[in-house]
Design brief:
Blueprint lengths: L5 E5 L5 E5 L2 E5 L6 E4 L3 E6 L4 E2 L1 H9 L3 E5 L5 E5 L7 H12 L1 H29 L6 H19 L4 H16 L26 H23 L18 H7 L3 H14 L8 E3 L5 E3 L1 H16 L1 E3 L6 E3 L3 H14 L12
Parallel strand pairs: 1-5, 2-6, 5-7
Antiparallel strand pairs: 2-3, 3-4, 7-8, 9-10, 11-12
Helix pairs in contact: 3-4, 3-5, 3-8, 4-5, 6-7, 6-8, 6-10
């Protein structure tokens, strides 16, 4: 099993990254230079605009260290990858299955099944742990609806039908999300899922965590030899990491949604860390972003029993495990792609 490696998140907008011997060098005006051995890094995520030296880029490529660039508010810009692992036959099989409507739909179904199952499990867990704070009749109704949508998804006859089921499940799930926010209700509330841009702090927090997960899922797929841009559920578009979006669907409720709620309910972040732009979009400030990233890194270290492997794995390796399972299915070693079902 792959080991959980270190990922460096650089949030300072005025920092420049360079290379000195075998070390990453972080330079900022009026501050001492910092050095980190490249040997200990699996990835580097930059939220800055100052720059990265070509020598460091080359060193990352040689050592298969993923170098990713995001805007300060978390939108994906670009990624510099090392050599593609795996063989060309695996990607050719991936491309062929993505064009096969029936086989592509079978994989897409399982991704959606994993997502709806885990959304339902999040609500069930909340009902168990916080029954006195919730409208239980509403939770019972949505949990029952999600069970029915799970059954419908298993027999979806087309991607259009599957997308309708997935969208309906998301609407029902998020209809209760505001009730899961117990603290700081003046600043953190949830009426509906808004993106591009997020229009409230809770949506901004979710969007940022989804970007982190999408980046790590894309890296995991590429590490096992798959193309993160050729998916089975999400349509292919230029610049869109469709397969990463497919695989992360089943992980979002467990990794991102629950972490967002914990950060707010435990008051690890506050509404002061968000600002509204003239366009109406909400941005997270640097200090809040650092708190979220630290919490994300800590969450990745926690372990759980993987339902298919029957082994303990860190949350941070879930995307890698699912990428491996998908690759095994594409090679013909597994009859179907086994989605992640949280227990």
């Amino acid at each position: 099993m792959k080991k959980l490696g270190n990922v460096l998140y650089l949030t300072s907008p005025d920092a420049f990254l360079g290379l000195e011997d075998e070390a990453l060098v972080i330079k900022k005006e009026d501050q001492p230079t910092k050095k980190l051995p490249l040997l200990n890094l699996e990835g580097i995520v930059c939220f800055n605009y100052t720059g990265v030296s070509p020598f460091l880029m080359g060193a990352c490529v040689q050592r298969n260290i993923n170098l990713t660039f995001l805007t300060p508010n978390g939108r994906f810009m670009a990624r510099v990858n090392g050599p593609v692992s795996g063989n060309v036959l695996l990607r050719k099989k991936q491309f062929a299955l993505s064009e096969d409507e029936d086989k592509s739909l079978a994989i897409a179904r399982n991704c959606v099944l994993g997502k709806i199952y885990n959304q339902r499990k999040v609500l069930q867990r909340a009902k168990r742990d916080h029954a006195l704070l919730l409208e239980l009749d509403q939770f019972d109704a949505v949990i029952a609806d999600l069970k029915e949508l799970l059954e419908n998804a298993q027999f979806a006859a087309s991607k259009a039908e599957l997308m309708a089921i997935e969208g309906n499940a998301a609407k029902r799930y998020f209809s209760l999300f505001d009730q899961l926010i117990f603290q700081q209700k003046d600043h953190f509330f949830f009426y509906e899922r808004t993106r591009r841009p997020p229009t409230d702090p809770m949506n901004a927090l979710l969007s940022f965590l989804y970007v982190l997960l999408a980046n790590e899922t894309a890296s995991a797929l590429e590490a096992v030899g798959l193309d993160a841009y050729v998916g089975f559920f999400h349509a292919d578009r230029p610049g869109r990491q469709s397969l990463a979006l497919d695989i992360m669907e089943e992980l979002r409720p467990v990794l991102c949604d629950r972490l967002a709620l914990n950060l707010v309910n435990r008051k690890q972040i506050s509404g002061k860390g968000f600002s509204i732009k003239e366009s109406g979009g909400v941005l997270m400030d640097d200090e809040t972003r650092k708190v979220v990233i630290v919490a994300w890194q800590e969450k990745k270290k926690e372990e759980l029993l993987h339902p298919f492997l029957k082994e303990k794995v860190p949350y941070g390796l879930l995307a890698h495990v699912q990428a491996l399972l998908l690759a095994r299915h594409l090679r013909g070693d597994l009859e179907a792609y086994p989605p992640f079902f949280w227990s």
